[in-house]
Amino acid sequence: MMWPLLKRDLARFFPFAGSGGAALPLLFFLAVAMLYPFAVGPQPELLAKTGGGVIWIAALLAAILPLERLVASDMELGVFDQLRLRGIAEESVMAVRMIAHWLSFGPLLILASFPAAALLGLDGATLHVVLLGLLAGTPGLAAAGLMIAALTASLRGGAALSGLLLIPLCLPILIFGAGALARGDTASLGFAAAISLLLVAIAPFAAGAAIKAAREG
Amino acid sequence: MQARLSANDLACRRGERLLFRGLSLDLAAGDVLHVRGANGIGKSSLLRILAGLLAPYAGDIASEGGVALLDERPALDLDAPLRKALGFWQAVDGCGSPQGALQAMELEPLMDVPVRYLSTGQRKRAAMASILNRAAPIWLLDEPLSGLDTDAQAKFASLIHSHVGGGGICVLASHQPVAVEGLKSIELADFVPEPKGEHVA
């Protein structure tokens, strides 16, 4: 029962899977990494010191971009109602969607960090911390994004709001994930991973409840 | 298992307005119920309550058998070709032989057209095809005839007829007359509370 759902979600959200626009967050991420050296000037020390943080900011913004399409269009089309009538709980639908959302930006973002690190002139040790941090943090970004997308799906102008709402929710992940760069050790990444896991555990239930509440509205 | 759908003393409230109250119905296999009423009187809300998507303000519902709902939203991916959009629901329903429904709804020439480019009537036929593939005994059809040409309207009527003939139940909400034999009908206006004194605070 869940496999067709995951297949459909991936077909809609995975970059290069057919529907245009899904690759934009990835290109956006690379564009930020590419433009940053032009904006601050080409001093290698400065780039190496701040580059890791720039990758984190770019990742956060890239996670915001797909939110608009994540839940609202399906709500408008009545897809959740039809799934409910087939006895599939909103929580399961949202759990599948969270996985699909992460799969469509998380792994690619981690891969894209290699060219981004090259553009910013990061050394191997910094890249190592960035990669581990993104691995720990992006599931949390996906979970928080899904919650916000479901909450704002029935609102007019919800897309703009969802970007704003996501930022405070992601702050702890950013603090612990990007904070590891400043100290140059990976100890605080455990906290980022813990917050990520917590969000992943909550998100399907919160998003499912939001969809049910929107139905009554 | 005999299909059955009954509701007891239903009331529906949307926002501050009580749309209808005191509505009871009891449908068994072979029944067709036509819910009549003007726009905005609560036909769609009644169907959503019967489907279990909306909680009634008062009263309760009992049903036996799966429920399929056709409303103005076809739940088909707009960007996908019709074949893929319908294919998703076939996969969810585990339907192995969708050909019969596609033929009945005359959808085969449209299978490669993205849903976005289909007309209202074509989308409705596509949504009906996925209801046929679902094989649920209880059909709730919200304005099934709107947007359809006369051929398709006759086709829908005959499908409803054969569905209830095979032991199904059909509730259809429509403001226009429906040509189905053995049709029961209720007028929703009979259950609308008096404007004065019944206003919920």
Number of extended strands of chain B? 8
User: Portion of residues in helices of chain B?
Assistant: 25-40%
Structural class of chain B: alpha/beta
The tally of structural domains of chain A comes to 1
Placed side by side, the strands forming the largest sheet of chain B appear as 5-6-7-3-8
The oligomerization state is heterodimer
Q: Strand count, sense and closure of the main sheet of chain B?
A: 5 strands, parallel
Structural class of chain A: mainly alpha
Low-confidence stretches of chain B: none
What does this 3D model show about the protein?
Chain A is an all-alpha fold and 217 residues long. Chain A has one domain. Chain A contains 10 helices and no strands. Chain A has helices at 2-13, 24-40, 44-64, 67-70, 72-77, 79-85, 90-120, 124-152, 158-183, 189-216. In chain A, helix 2 packs antiparallel against helix 3 (44-64) and helix 2 (24-40) packs parallel to helix 7 (90-120). The longest helix of chain A is centred in the middle third of the chain and has 31 residues, at 90-120. Chain A starts with a helix and ends with a helix. The mean pLDDT of chain A is 89. In chain B, the strands form 2 sheets. A 5-stranded parallel sheet of chain B has the order 5-6-7-3-8, with helices on both faces. Chain B is built from 5 helices and 8 strands, in the order E-E-E-H-E-E-H-H-H-E-H-E-E. Chain B is globular, with a radius of gyration of 17 Å. The longest helix of chain B is centred in the C-terminal third of the chain and has 16 residues, at 150-165. The mean pLDDT of chain B is 89. In chain B, strand 6 (138-142), helix 5 and strand 7 (169-173) form a beta-alpha-beta unit. Chain B is α/β, with parallel strands linked by helices and 201 residues long. At the A-B interface, helix 1, helix 5 and helix 6 of A face strand 5 and helix 2 of B.
